What we know:
Blueprint: E1 8-13, H1 21-30, E2 33-37, H2 45-53, E3 58-60, H3 69-72, H4 76-82, E4 88-95, H5 104-121, E5 125-131, H6 134-145, E6 151-155, H7 161-169, E7 173-176, H8 178-181, H9 184-192, E8 198-200, E9 208-209, E10 212-213, H10 220-230, H11 234-249
Helix pairs in contact: 5-6, 7-9, 10-11
Bound molecules: manganese (II) ion.
Amino acid sequence: MITDPPIAVDYHCHLDLYPNFEKEFSHCTSAKVATLAVTTTPKAWPRNKELGDKSPHVRVALGLHPQLIAERAGELGLFERYFTETRFIGEVGLDASPRYYSTFGEQKRLFERVLQLCADAGDKILSIHSVRAAREVLNCVELLFAKSSSRAVLHWFTGAPADAKRAADLGCFFSVNEQMLAKPSARRIIEAIPPNQILTETDGPFVQSKGHPVKPGQVNGAIEALSKILNYSLSQTQKLILKNLAELEQHA
Ligand code: MN
């Protein structure tokens, strides 16, 4: 199959959380948005994969969201069963915010298991959540990914600039969204990492753009904000992100 090259990148979007998610798959395909459709539970995998298989632009990631560990920890077996069907893993990670802290130990156990599987398999690409847990996530990545050809993409990273630099030195990429970039702290994160390790995302439908949930592939706000911080033109920024995507997905 000959595929038109993508014109934009949305490397973390919950297509299956939109009311008509089949339509969103078609939209990303016709708009030529290189999309990483993350999932939150292994149960969502088969249907997402079926739709993703039909799209030259949507990659589907197998996930086990840290905020759902209380109810979904039992799905690790299912995760392991589907694991070989995909190169893309997410949303996975750690969340130490007060609401989820009671499961932090269990989250860590499952996240380490997922990282170990990816490290052993090699050539996987992960979209990682790290709310209030940047250091713990980086400790795990450092320990388990040092010798692996799998790559970590930190989604909506909110750690300190020093943590961002440490992550970049470990080879992590960062997917950034419009809402994240609207905060003054985002500039310090962007300035702490090399431009060639940045991707765009929407994190739809969770991110708001001008008072509405962002649409899949709607990364223009993120591109605009990034271009200001980097002092690049819009088209330079778009090209940078597409080049970074190609670099990330290159097989080791
Ligand atoms: Mn998400």
